[in-house]
Amino acid sequence: NVPHGHRLAQAIEPLLNGAARYQPEPDPIRIVVLACLDFQMRGTAVEKSLDHFYRQASAKLGTSDLASLRGYLQGTPSDEVAAVALWGTRYWTRAALLRQLVAFFLQMCGGAEPEIDAMRRWGREAQFKRDFQGKIKGLGYNTFVRMAQQLGADTAAPTGWTCHFVADALGKTPRDGCLVDVLNGAADLLKLPRADVDWAIRRHQGHP
């Protein structure tokens, strides 16, 4: 609501002096891997899994783009084996989600243009209920908004960092959908890009 937006904008404004602009993610593999790892997991576990993937698994398995990642997953006998190979853990349910998400984006891409270009167009134009809800069981609104932001949509995203900041500023913790709305509303009041405001909050809160 409007009073919440004004209160939040006032709390955000001191963070903006010299704040860096948000940069969309250029790596389609990082986007899908993060989407499948970065929910209901400790940040240290996510970072450890990502480190294993990029330092050990990616070159060894030949996963340079979504098509090659799908090829690896299709040739792997089980999600358990894939999880250990990809991120050095037994997060096999995350590997199962990854199979589905990679297939979803490759079907959407169609092969006529670079993967990241097709994904960015989808991220800017997609609507949750129309384009993502129910497509991949286990991935919902939060994942959708974070991916859309990474792909260039000008929106805030629900994260622990932003949630804690908003709760401190407003005295209560909003639901995920309301969190995005109130953050976007505050950015609009400040007449600044929503993703930049979101990024300034995350950096202030200690996002690496």
Description of the molecule:
The relative contact order is 0.16. It contains 12 helices and no strands. By secondary structure, the chain is an all-alpha fold. The chain is globular and about 55 Å long. The model has no long low-confidence stretch (mean pLDDT 91). Helix 5 crosses helix 6 and helix 6 packs across helix 7.
Question: In terms of topology, how is this protein built?
Answer:
Elements: H1 2-12, H2 28-37, H3 43-61, H4 66-74, H5 79-87, H6 92-109, H7 115-125, H8 128-131, H9 141-150, H10 160-170, H11 176-190, H12 194-204
Helix pairs in contact: 1-11, 2-6, 2-9, 4-6, 5-6, 6-7, 7-9, 11-12
What's this entry about, in short?
The chain is an all-alpha fold and 208 residues long. The chain has twelve helices and no strands.
Name a few traits of the molecule:
mainly alpha
Total beta strands: 0
Strand content: under 5%
Which quaternary structure do these chains form?
single chain
Note the run of SSEs as H and E.
Answer: HHHHHHHHHHHH
Intertermini distance: 31 Å
Q: What form results from the Cα inertia axes?
A: globular
| Main beta sheet strand tally, sense and closure | none
State mean pLDDT (0 to 100 scale).
91
Please count the helical segments.
12
- The helix content is 55-70%
Poorly predicted parts: none
- Please identify the structural class as seen in this structure: mainly alpha
User: Cα-atom Rg, whole angstroms?
Assistant: 18 Å
